[in-house]
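B., you asked whether I could sanity-check this one before it goes into the benchmark set. Here's the sequence:
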Amino acid sequence: MTLTHQQVVDILGHYDDVRVVEIIETGASPAELVEARRWLAGDRRTLGDGQPLRPAIVNELYEILSVEDPEWDEA
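And here's what the prediction gave me:
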């Protein structure tokens, strides 16, 4: 099942709409997004219910989540 905007917000909390769209466009499942969020926290393969995950998708999500917001120059 592909993620919806509301599922992304439910999993990550308030998040930049541009990144939410990027996340949805990966075709990831809610379980894969949860796993990517856990990777970001330093945990790996934390789901114990045996759900099949696509490592390439989880890695792509991890990359999206780990990108820092650009710093804006204040002039």
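One thing to flag: The chain has one domain: 5-66. Otherwise nothing jumped out at me.
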